[in-house]
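Researcher: Next entry in the queue.
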Amino acid sequence: MSRRTILVVDDQPLNRELVADLLEPAGYTVLEAEDGVDLLERVQREHPDLILLDLKLPGPDGFTLARQLKAHPATRGVPVVAVTADLLPDKRAWALEAGCDGYLRKPLDPRELLEVVTRLLARGG
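Model: Structure for this entry, 125 residues:
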C-alpha cells in the first residue's frame, strides 16, 4: 500500500512542523503550504489525499478556500479538515457549512488528529 499524502496549510511554520512530526511517524507523507495561493498550487501539482486547513490565513481564509476546493471537480472528493485556535462555538458549524469534512482545535491533540485523519482516509478509500 502506498503512503497517503496529507497537505498541511498553515501560515505558521512551527504549526506545520508539529503536524508533520505527528503524522510522518504514523506513515503519512506530509506536504506543506503557507497560504491559499501555495495551497492551490500544491493541490494541482501533488494531488494530496487529505488537507488540514488552518481557518485563519493571510489572503483568502480557510472558509473561502474550503468552498473553492469543494466546488472544483478535481478536489471535491478530497477530505478537508478545518484547524483553528479560535474558540468561538460557531466556527465548527461555519467550517462544516463551507464544506469541511472535519474540525480540529489547536493545540492539536495527537490522538484526535490521527483518529480524524485515519477515519476520513478510510472513508475515502
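Model: Residues 110-124 form the longest helix (15 residues).
Researcher: Noted, moving on.
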